[in-house]
User: Which sequence fits this backbone?
């Protein structure tokens, strides 16, 4: 878990099985951490956009689960920062309780949508879909 994958130029691209959960609701982030850790993933948490950017700079995750509504930086703003930084291959799944149009989020760079409240099995399936080779079997 967490093996660094390298690009042809030898620069780290992402860490397989390393998932960054970005949600200002600590209880939601903790629940995701608990469930996905049991599935064999390595979980890092950030509770605001600035912290998420620092976490990404410290090590690019294999998947980002991103809450859309956060007080300091909207999820769409953080998504734009992530994509503008050149991280176009890292899947970013938007988590939202709102009725956002998936097409609009995909156009902004999202890889998928996980509607809140979500079923824990849906969470596990979503993560496995976006990082299937990273899961411990």
Assistant:
């Amino acid at each position: 878990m967490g093996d660094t994958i390298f690009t042809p130029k030898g620069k780290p691209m992402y860490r397989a099985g390393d998932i960054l959960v970005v949600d200002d609701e600590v209880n939601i982030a903790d629940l995701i951490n608990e469930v996905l850790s049991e599935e064999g993933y390595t979980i890092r948490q950030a509770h605001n956009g600035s912290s998420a950017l620092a976490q990404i700079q410290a090590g690019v995750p294999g998947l980002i689960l991103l809450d859309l509504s956060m007080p300091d930086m909207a999820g769409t703003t953080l998504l734009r920062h992530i994509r503008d930084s050149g991280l176009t291959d890292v899947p970013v799944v938007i988590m939202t309780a709102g009725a956002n149009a998936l097409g609009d989020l995909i156009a902004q760079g999202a890889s998928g949508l996980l509607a809140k409240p979500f079923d824990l099995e849906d969470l596990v399936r979503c993560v496995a879909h976006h990082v299937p080779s990273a899961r411990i079997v």
Q: What stands out?
A: DSSP finds five helices and six strands in the chain. Residues 1-13 have pLDDT under 50 and may be disordered. Residues 38 and 108 are 31 Å apart (CA to CA).
